[in-house]
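Here's what a typical entry looks like (Protein Ves):
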Amino acid sequence: MKLQVLGPADFQKMPWKNGLGVTTELAVARRPGEDGFDWRISTATVASPGPFSLFPGIDRSLAIVRGGTLTLHVEDCPDVTLSTRTPPYRFGGELAVTSTPALETVGVPIDDFNVMTRRTAWQHTLAQHRLDGDAVTWALPTDADAVAFLYCAQGQVRVNFTDGQAMSLPEGHALRVGGGDACELRADASPTHIFLTTLSRR
């Protein structure tokens, strides 16, 4: 099992594809071409209404980290309003999407969490949990090329692996896991808000 802890010094900020905002790349599998990746995990800030960038052939999942609610107006789909309490929303990157934020605090943008995978080659899952007392068991993908990725958005999470390894991951840090079986996740600080992503080849 391979473990890699990532922190703010490892993340890369870059402009949105449409130039209307900023994305922070947490992890990425790069490739040649216009979009430049096979998969990407990132966060972004949204402060005002506007369109999303188009990513043809990409499957996307989006969830809210903090800052308010975000209403998505998705081509040919009903509007959906996301908050820190709603499940991640999945949609095709080729769809025209605009968003309308409702900020919790004036002048403080919404932070969101994004996972993107190239549809012909990769697939992903995304879940979010608020840890408070009870542990969450996270089943890790077993395929050789698969990746499991944990991001601690708030608080501090204790990670206990079945082989006896353990670590605490603080707010704003991520853990990339290759291999393994399962692990147990508990809050080391309350409240603790985490995002769990798995990536695997089709």
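The radius of gyration is 17 Å.

More examples are in the samples folder.
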